[in-house]
Amino acid sequence: MADDQTRELLVELLRDFYRKDWVSGTGGGICGPSDDGHLLVAPTGVHKERVRPEDLFVVDVSDTSIRRRAADTALRPSECAHIFTLVARERGVRSIVHTHALGSVLAGDLAGDADHVVIERLEMLKGIRGLTNEDRHLVPVIDNTPREAQLVASVQRMLADPRFDAAFGVLVRDHGCYVWGTDMWEAKRHTEAYHYLFGAVVARAERGYRPPVVQPSTSVEEEERP
Amino acid sequence: MADDQTRELLVELLRDFYRKDWVSGTGGGICGPSDDGHLLVAPTGVHKERVRPEDLFVVDVSDTSIRRRAADTALRPSECAHIFTLVARERGVRSIVHTHALGSVLAGDLAGDADHVVIERLEMLKGIRGLTNEDRHLVPVIDNTPREAQLVASVQRMLADPRFDAAFGVLVRDHGCYVWGTDMWEAKRHTEAYHYLFGAVVARAERGYRPPVVQPSTSVEEEERP
Amino acid sequence: MADDQTRELLVELLRDFYRKDWVSGTGGGICGPSDDGHLLVAPTGVHKERVRPEDLFVVDVSDTSIRRRAADTALRPSECAHIFTLVARERGVRSIVHTHALGSVLAGDLAGDADHVVIERLEMLKGIRGLTNEDRHLVPVIDNTPREAQLVASVQRMLADPRFDAAFGVLVRDHGCYVWGTDMWEAKRHTEAYHYLFGAVVARAERGYRPPVVQPSTSVEEEERP
Amino acid sequence: MADDQTRELLVELLRDFYRKDWVSGTGGGICGPSDDGHLLVAPTGVHKERVRPEDLFVVDVSDTSIRRRAADTALRPSECAHIFTLVARERGVRSIVHTHALGSVLAGDLAGDADHVVIERLEMLKGIRGLTNEDRHLVPVIDNTPREAQLVASVQRMLADPRFDAAFGVLVRDHGCYVWGTDMWEAKRHTEAYHYLFGAVVARAERGYRPPVVQPSTSVEEEERP
Questions:
Q1: Which residues contact D63 (CB under 8 A, 6 or more apart)?
Q2: Active site includes D123?
Q3: pLDDT digit string (tens) for B162-203?
Q4: Nearest CA in chain B to A132
Q5: Which residues of B are less than 8 Å from C174 in CB distance?
């Protein structure tokens, strides 16, 4: 897919996410692959449903530096860019979505003090690459920080935690979520699947239907200790 | 209706269902009648709101074999196809809708261990062919299986159960629902009516308003035993 | 407004109401004034968001007879037509909306055994002609009947009840609501206002926020007895 | 931005707000800056999603007099205009939004007898100018009055209260909210952020998740008294 098509699809997805109330108030963001192997990133402080193709930046995956500016020189890339490049490097993906969907905030609340939520017994788990509907899927929950760039350290710890190897997303308490995929289509599918799953665990918990078992945070090492 | 019109309507309905959050994350599906008496079926793994008319397969009602491929030879027909042809054969219908609507998952949860939910005291029951608003309507609930094709056996049992003769749909626990009709217009009407009814029984149950009576699963034979 | 414009607006409003989930599954209906002082009525059994201007009937206000058929001779006027003409005669209005909105069913449930719900302490009351936000507004609730035409008797009793003189709508238990206005713009405003008000009383009741006081059904005569 | 563009954007925003159910039943309103430093104000009694650019009034910031009428001389400016000019004068802003969103009514209910709600621990606080996600943000709640113009006195008191210096909005009990920003883009961002925040505090309160601490109304002087 050429950069021009990627740019068109990114702004179209932002409009779709706005309609679903996943991004609003200029919050949220998205990136996709640029032709030269880096990331096309939306600008900060802009109403996301009104981003135009020429408003996107090309950001270097290795160090988050700007490789190509937006046409409007007053724009700056989204602060999410540091999370985006980290996830891109660590997971080898090129499309990451960031939303403030209320359902993801409530799913984070549901975790209480735990460092993850458990999602199970839902066909939609198959919407996440590699999962079956028999899996007990752990989605990490990290604490929010004053600035988005400060989330980098905890995202990095989460990405290194083998309990979360199967996760293509992370919940940020009081904030929302990041979801990724190899390309934009997988990121879109994962975004839709996770938002559905977050909504489902919250809806089930408040009705007492098949509540997920939230377990205390323990490292794999501790669990494997004989 | 010629195949071309059927194809256009099928992709339009998928877009409508996506907007209503009934299909998402590439999940869900639909089929309609082909001119030669078989089924036009959407492909698997595709974002359903973006299916194009030429992406549809003609699938043989008798054995689920492919009679005509999609224009894009990389596509495969939806795994639902086995359920679609089964329902088409057993009920003599040609349009079946499969959704993951959260409301249908919660309606399945509401059934608890029972093998059905009861819907009653709702005018919208008239949206289902043959029903009046005085009926006590039983919608079967079956357990989910690892693969969609494995649902065939329990769907078949449900279709053979005389308690469910009046049903034009089945809930799949943790998964969603299948809804059918003679043609696409009836399938659409039944899909809208059932999703409304599922939402209504869940909304009433959580508020304690006119809750449906969920009865233990008993066969008609047992009930009729003197 | 000429008939052609009225027809255009009626089908546009049906599409809007479908998007809001107020009409679905071919249910619901609407009428507006015809040039000759009678009613333009939507057909029955048609997906309401797909009604075309030429699908509308002109129905006689005095006896519900058909004055002008739809272009498609297979169509029949909505069964609501008997309610529509009754309200038109008794209230002197020419536009009536009928919806199955889940919020109106839940508002009816909220009434319990009472024959009305009370709406108070809401600015949106001003959306109903003649009301202030200090009013304690009674909306009648009648029982559903097997056929829509059978509702005529209880709608008539409700229209004759002085407690409900200020109401421009009626809730039908397990069914939905009828809402009216002098012309289509007032009917639209009343429809939006009542659906908001129904949603508000249900939302407040379930959270224990400012619940409406539901009083036992008493006639004005009893209340005025010294 | 020239008046023509401002007019276009104002009517576009009204359509967006209607789709989000923030304005309905002809309720709600918006204003933006006119070229001559005053306010472009929507008319009263008009279905807000159908306002046309030529339906807007230019209203004098200093005394709410009409500087330029709408093309249709039957129209009158929204009764909100008195609140709009007050906020414009006191806060130096030129765009104010008024909605009846149910979420803002429920957020007002949540305040109980207090004169404010507290919003905290939400990233979306950053959507409000000057706030961080570590702030404990107080949004004032004032009582509704029979006529909109009568709200002026309590809005004025609220604007003078130092506890609410950081607020760009006010909740009106049983009614909705007013939200403002320097220009239309900031007012839009604040409107989206506050509606999200109101929804979040209500959603958390009903589930017992991280409920905001509602404190009794005390003046800054009392709090600082040794």
A1: D85
A2: yes
A3: 999 999 999 999 999 999 999 999 999 999 999 999 999 999
A4: B146
A5: 121-123, 133, 210
Q: Are D183 and D95 in contact (CB under 8 A)?
A: yes
ipTM, interface predicted TM-score of the complex: 0.92
**DSSP-based three-state secondary structure for A171:** strand
Which tokens is C84 given?
């529509």
Structure tokens belonging to residue A17: 């996410």
Q: How far is the alpha carbon of C6 from chain D, nearest alpha carbon, in Å?
A: 16
pLDDT tens digits along A64-100: 999 999 999 999 999 899 999 999 999 999 999 999 9
Binary contact (B100, A123; C-beta < 8 A): yes
Contact D75, D54 (CB under 8 A): no
Average pLDDT over residues D56-71: 97
Q: Which two tokens stand for residue C53?
A: 């201007």
User: Helix count (H) and strand count (E) of chain C?
Assistant: 6, 9
Chains that touch C (3 or more CB pairs under 8 A): B, D
In angstroms, rounded to a whole number, what is the distance separating the alpha carbons of residues B31 and B187? Answer: 10
Please, are residues C61 and C37 in contact by the beta-carbon 8 Å criterion? yes
Letter for the amino acid at D226? Answer: P
CB C111 within 8 A of CB C117: yes
Amino acid at A57: F
Contact between A109 and D207 using a beta-carbon 8 Å cutoff: yes
Neighbours of D225 (CB within 10 A): 8
pLDDT tens digits for D90-103? 999 999 999 999 99
For chains B and C, having 3+ Cβ pairs within 8 Å is answered yes
Asked if pLDDT for residue A175 goes beyond 80, the answer is yes
Cα end-to-end span (Å), chain D: 51
Which residues, numbered 141 to 160 in chain D, qualify as contacts with chain C under a Cβ-Cβ cut-off of 8 Å? 144, 146
Structure tokens at B169: 């749909």
CA D163 to chain centre: 17
Q: Is A149 exposed, middle or buried (0-12, 13-18, 19+ CB in 10 A)?
A: middle
Query: Following DSSP, what letter does each residue of D140-185 receive, concatenated?
Result: EEE---SSGGGGHHHHHHHHH-GGGTT-SEEEETTTEEEEEESSHH
- C in contact with A (at least 3 C-beta pairs within 8 A): no
Name the DSSP letter for residue D75.
-
Mean pLDDT along residues A54-58: 97
pLDDT band of D195, cuts 50, 70, 90: very high
Q: Which residues of chain B have pLDDT under 50?
A: 213-214, 217-226
Marked catalytic residue, from C54, C90, C120, C123: C123
Contact B92, B86 (CB under 8 A): no
- Give the pair of three-digit tokens for residue D199: 């929804």
